[in-house]
Amino acid sequence: MRAENLTLSFGTNVIYDSAEFNIPTRAKVGIIGVNGAGKTTLFKLMLGQIQPDSGILDTGGANLGYLPQQIQIDNPDITVWDFIATARPIKKLESELNDLYVALANNPDDENVQNQISVIQDRLDYYDIYNAETAMLEIIENMQLGDFIDCKIANLSGGQKSKVAFARLLYSLADVLLLDEPTNHLDMASREFVCDYLRRYKGTVLIISHDTEFLNKIVNKILFVDKTTHKITLFDGNYDDYKIKVAQMRARRAARIADEERQIKHLSEFVARANAASPTAHTIKRVGHTRAAQLKKILAHRTQRDVEYKRVKMDLSPLHEGARFPIMVDNLWFRYAGQKLLYRNLSFHITGGERFLIVGENGVGKSTLLKLIMGFLTPERGAIDINPKTDIAYYAQEQEQLNPEKTVLENVACPEYSDLQLRAALANFLFFDMDVFKRVGVLSPGERARVALCKLLLRRPNMLILDEPTNHLDPETQMIIGDNFHDFSGTIIVVSHNPEFVEQIGITRMLVLPAGRIEDYDHEKLEYYYSVNSSDDK
User: Which of 90, 161, 296, 533 has the smallest set of CB atoms within 10 Å of its CB?
Assistant: First the structure.
């Protein structure tokens, strides 16, 4: 897979400028870059969903398998088993083969039919027809999909759908796997299986991920998409190797810059003295001209300093003081129509200022509980009492609170702030100048996450309800928001699969679903729950 002089812009926003790279067959590649650099756009180009302005992106006719960040399944009424099984078109190929054998029986000398039979037989051999079901069962077991293998896709939670889509992709045996943030929906056991599976995968694997630990376990190359230069650079090694190489490159660059600055200072001083010398001082005038030419050459080709990306800034001071007990949940019952009961007599209270984590298996209703608290869903029985002093801001995992058809500025607009104040707030989240007039629908998931966070914090609430707030964010931004949430004087209820973030914000208690058990925070307990539970649910 290679790119030559790849150029692409969206309006005045340059994504790639004569970018080039060459990815060897069967390489395991981590694709990195800041939010909005063009990582997911690169996948869309490979898939033919968009076309470059100029240049070449050649996939060599490879069969591409794609796992997007947001899963959409065309036929939600299909069962999980059938959905995964159809990733290898074995039944279709067998049917075609039978038809060809019938045709061959009627005309044994037909070379065209014989050639078609050979081609289909090769495809069946590629899909390992005799061991295919065993391979599929191994994936299902190791990704812990057995409990709902006969369920319809439509009845699964968001996290379950993502895991099923991932399982189907692994089973597909595509020549090239394109994985966009694949760890957002993996529990620890599934994650270890996936790491091992991808390391052994016979095809090429391209992974967009902010999960550096995951990248280190799998990749042998890093593809860096530079938002500043709009170039793409391929590095050998994993993410840690890349960081070392970049640090060494920066050190060499800094040394060159320091040496050039010394030369510029020395030459400038000499040229100034030569210019000020007496007209009869011919020797110093002549040397001055030579040094001036040297100075001009150095200035024209001087090494540019690395661009320092701005960092997200957050103001989390609540506008109003919160209540002692901001939320009380009493004997809560809830189920989705036609499905099993999620909660039975669930009761707990939230204490002002605490950090409250909800953990549990995929599909037990972690995100659902947040939606019940927000009033988006109605309990079957019981009550959720929210103190009048409680001012809630909600961060939805899929950023449903954003309107993709409106601009960044329109999405955060509220009557308490002028446009100038809103633009200042958006600048804190790295949206500058014309960026605020971009339609949210064209932003990368990481950029949309920053818009959602800005919208949330403009409320200046005394309670934050956060559903996977670190998904889609680069590691540095994750650390920044973790530090800020730690210092927040209000209350936080959070669903998160990110153990570093959970540790950082200072969790005090945990609600364990489906049991409905409240436990004091304990690091070892949390590690256990993360080892058996997924990150996302209905």
Answer: 296
Tell me what pLDDT residue 311 has. 66
Q: Encoding tokens for residue 279?
A: 């007209």
For the chain, the average pLDDT equals 88
Helix (H, G, I), strand (E, B) or coil at 294: helix
φ, ψ of residue 197 to 5 degrees: the values are -60, -45
Note the pLDDT tens digit of each residue in 281-320.
878 888 888 999 999 999 988 887 766 656 667 677 898 9
Tokens at 369, concatenated: 């509980």
183: DSSP letter: G
Cα separation, 237 vs 234, whole angstroms: 10
* Greatest extent of the chain over all pairs of C-alpha atoms, in Å: 107
Going by the DSSP 8-state scheme, the letter that residue 182 receives in this structure is G
Q: Please, which pLDDT band fits residue 429 given cuts at 50, 70 and 90?
A: confident
- Separation of first and last alpha carbons in the chain: 38
| Rounded average pLDDT over 156-181 | 90
Q: Is there a cis peptide before residue 108, judged by omega within 30 degrees of 0?
A: no
pLDDT at 137 exceeding the cut of 90: yes
From edge to edge, which strands make up the β-sheet containing 13-22?
13-22, 2-10, 54-58
The Cα–Cα gap between 417 and 5 comes to 45
Task: Report residue 75: phi and psi, to 5°.
Answer: -120, 85
What is the distance of C-alpha 137 from the center of its chain?
A: 28
> What number of residues does the chain have?
538
Which residue do the tokens 């949210």 mark? 440
Distance (Å, rounded) from C-alpha 529 to C-alpha 513? 10
Q: Which two tokens stand for residue 466?
A: 């956060």
DSSP string, 270-287: HHHHHHHS-TT-HHHHHH
Instruction: Spell out a b/e string for 92-124, using b for 16 or more CB atoms within 10 Å of the CB, else e.
Output: ebeebbeebeeeeeeeeeeeebeebbeebeebb
Residue 516 CA to residue 44 CA, distance in Å, equals 43
What is the pTM assigned to this prediction?
0.70
Residue type at position 63: N
Return the C-alpha torsion angle 510, 513, 518, 521, nearest 10.
-20
Best mean pLDDT range from 49-53, 151-155, 393-397, 533-537: 49-53
